[in-house]
Prior knowledge:
The complex is a heterotrimer of chains A (296), B (252) and C (328).
Chain A: H1 4-35, H2 42-60, H3 64-87, H4 95-117, E1 132-138, E2 141-146, H5 147-169, H6 171-181, H7 183-188, H8 193-214, H9 225-240, H10 245-265, H11 268-285, H12 287-291
Antiparallel strand pairs in A: 1-2
Helix pairs in contact in A: 1-5, 1-8, 1-9, 1-10, 2-3, 2-4, 2-8, 2-9, 3-8, 5-6, 5-8, 6-8, 9-10, 9-11, 10-11
Chain B: E1 6-15, E2 18-28, E3 33-37, H1 44-51, E4 59-64, E5 67-68, H2 74-79, E6 82-84, H3 97-105, H4 111-124, H5 140-152, E7 158-162, H6 170-185, E8 189-193, H7 197-203, E9 206-211, E10 214-219, H8 221-226, H9 228-240, H10 247-251
Helix pairs in contact in B: 3-4, 3-5
Chain C: H1 2-19, H2 29-53, H3 62-79, H4 83-105, H5 110-130, H6 132-135, E1 141-142, H7 160-182, H8 184-194, H9 196-201, H10 206-232, E2 234-235, H11 237-240, H12 243-257, H13 264-283, H14 290-305, H15 309-327
Antiparallel strand pairs in C: 1-2
Helix pairs in contact in C: 2-7, 2-10, 2-12, 2-13, 3-4, 3-5, 3-10, 4-10, 7-8, 7-10, 8-10, 12-13, 12-15, 13-14
InterPro entries (chain C): ABC_transp_permease, LivM-like
Keywords (chain C): Cell membrane, Membrane, Transmembrane, Transmembrane helix
Protein name (chain C): Branched-chain amino acid transport system permease protein
Amino acid sequence: xxxxxxxxxxxxxxxxxxxxxxxxxxxxxxxxxxxxxxxxxxxxxxxxxxxxxxxxxxxxxxxxxxxxxxxxxxxxxxxxxxxxxxxxxxxxxxxxxxxxxxxxxxxxxxxxxxxxxxxxxxxxxxxxxxxxxxxxxxxxxxxxxxxxxxxxxxxxxxxxxxxxxxxxxxxxxxxxxxxxxxxxxxxxxxxxxxxxxxxxxxxxxxxxxxxxxxxxxxxxxxxxxxxxxxxxxxxxxxxxxxxxxxxxxxxxxxxxxxxxxxxxxxxxxxxxxxxxxxxxxxxxxxxxxxxxxxxx
Amino acid sequence: xxxxxxxxxxxxxxxxxxxxxxxxxxxxxxxxxxxxxxxxxxxxxxxxxxxxxxxxxxxxxxxxxxxxxxxxxxxxxxxxxxxxxxxxxxxxxxxxxxxxxxxxxxxxxxxxxxxxxxxxxxxxxxxxxxxxxxxxxxxxxxxxxxxxxxxxxxxxxxxxxxxxxxxxxxxxxxxxxxxxxxxxxxxxxxxxxxxxxxxxxxxxxxxxxxxxxxxxxxxxxxxxxxxxxxxxxxxxxxxxxxxxxxxxxxxx
Amino acid sequence: xxxxxxxxxxxxxxxxxxxxxxxxxxxxxxxxxxxxxxxxxxxxxxxxxxxxxxxxxxxxxxxxxxxxxxxxxxxxxxxxxxxxxxxxxxxxxxxxxxxxxxxxxxxxxxxxxxxxxxxxxxxxxxxxxxxxxxxxxxxxxxxxxxxxxxxxxxxxxxxxxxxxxxxxxxxxxxxxxxxxxxxxxxxxxxxxxxxxxxxxxxxxxxxxxxxxxxxxxxxxxxxxxxxxxxxxxxxxxxxxxxxxxxxxxxxxxxxxxxxxxxxxxxxxxxxxxxxxxxxxxxxxxxxxxxxxxxxxxxxxxxxxxxxxxxxxxxxxxxxxxxxxxxxx
Lengths: 296, 252, 328
């Protein structure tokens, strides 16, 4: 550590980006928690969210922070449809079928986007992109909070809190949690579990698309952008316990911190390697955390 | 007096705060047929799972032919001569009946030998006619018998049978009892968990009674039927929990 | 009839495959497609040993493939070592990597195993990209080309000898798979697939069986990596360590054809590779992503129609035809 300001700057960077990772990962965890399906294609909805927000910005001048809501709504309905047509038939199917269906979906979506949108990188320009709050300025350096990252973080907090409210304080949320814990019992209680699965998948991909849209001011959109986030997402989710929504938040922030602190000592490509190693080790060493039921 | 083939000393298994098997001690002599009874949730299947290595013991010792076997992996314990059947039936459902049994035979044989052995065992337990059927297509009583055949093919010294007579007709039960007796005569030691009390009383020379994980009685069927703690376990506490359906038979 | 039917079918198939290239231009496009199809049939078969028989769904087999390709190529560049020896060394390294990876993954199942192996394959890709002093980094690495024809150095003036190397490799790998499938290990692996706990209780050393299967599969995959390197003469980390290009493609081919069956990967490769090549040549490289888009769609469709793949589908169709014929 060069100095105390570097430390705090790194900490702030880690938490800001980690908050976004958290929101992106919540959706993945929600889908697993409710349907017990690992959606390998999940990061593609982040890409979709970024593209929707980009088009909203490019053609209607809508700021990505607002475009995120459009992305959420559109992907929510796409997700519901996909759940109905693609995911529903494989609930309870052999795992090899579950895994490769979503892997197939990953390829179809990533390359479908490549065919539709081309390989161009697309970015937005906003007034706040280059601005930053100065938290501290002194001889040892400065601590800055970039506004684009701060706004993304705040939006992430907002969506995380809304999801928490939905799951814990609304009757639909309770029905969804009941479905995740015991689908048979939920059915007997009169809950339409098929509908719950559709809503859960829609919400799961919608939340992730929302997270994708809010980072558009500082990460450029491209059809392959999802692949940058796959390991991040899965590491966050696995760190927090697959299926645990609250765990995904903790895991997301941890991944953000690991990434920003490893950037201090490692070259950029090896940052991801750190995550891979942590990812495999966590899978191996904390299996009980993985199979633990969602607690939130 | 022969040396005991299995010694269980102060065996305990906890799951978090729940003590599923609590300080259980008993011994088995070679060639015994012992019944393990107790109300639902008494810890019978957990005890089997600890003995066969599915769960390591939390405390206590298991001596298999004098050598400690507690905490060994299941396949090592199987190689030392102890295996079990599964209460909920855990066959290889996509494989044929023959292949299920052959897999057991591979523990101590080459593949061609295991095949020969498996066919002989299927003949003996009366499953030869369905040897080529897929295990997943069988009826429940048939599956239970395949479980027994597969376990037998590992050439065990001690075989733990977990409710293999459930859903059998009285005639079929009679067949199983005859089979177990004849296998015992060849030197296999049996521990049998069974809810059908008449069958247990008929088959077993000795009973172990578990209640809430504790061994509350160990004796001949007649002794057990008159044992106060057993009667209390079945009638007293179980009445309240509406699990008394076996109780009249214990007393019968 | 059944006793001799499949062996004779195999003999006929191998004879046809041996004579087929003699009718083709030895430098032509068709023979290259056949080479790639055999390469991926062999890879699918290698994946099938762990993924099909034991249901350990690996999404990281590219790690082994890349290790094989890089080991022989780097040694050839540095010491002019024969790719045969380099390939064997690559197999050894791949086996060591498989053993290392088994420490954290041998107890994992299903999704968790898939995720962990995916991470391991990606880790190798990152390493190959960043360790540029040895691997050449993201720009790739080329096999030094000599004009002389030499079996020892695995270099030939035409593709024809490569074709026979691929064919021999494929035949050997199919025999290995068949031996495992019908042997004691096959029984053990199927037991693990269908009920791991029951397998343990009746005496199957599940760790050992999985380790043997995964090391055999890793070694085969690595050697195919060497054959690929000597066939393509140039490759980069994103190709040989790629998730889409290798890991998923291997699995896709086995699943499409029929997971856990001997014929599956052969059918899968015979279907996928020509289709991919056709799409690429018809639409050209200008339409980037088309073949992978098609992969994705095919994978989704085949799983929704019948997760057991083409072998089962053919069986269904056969049954339908026969039962119709019988009833009329």
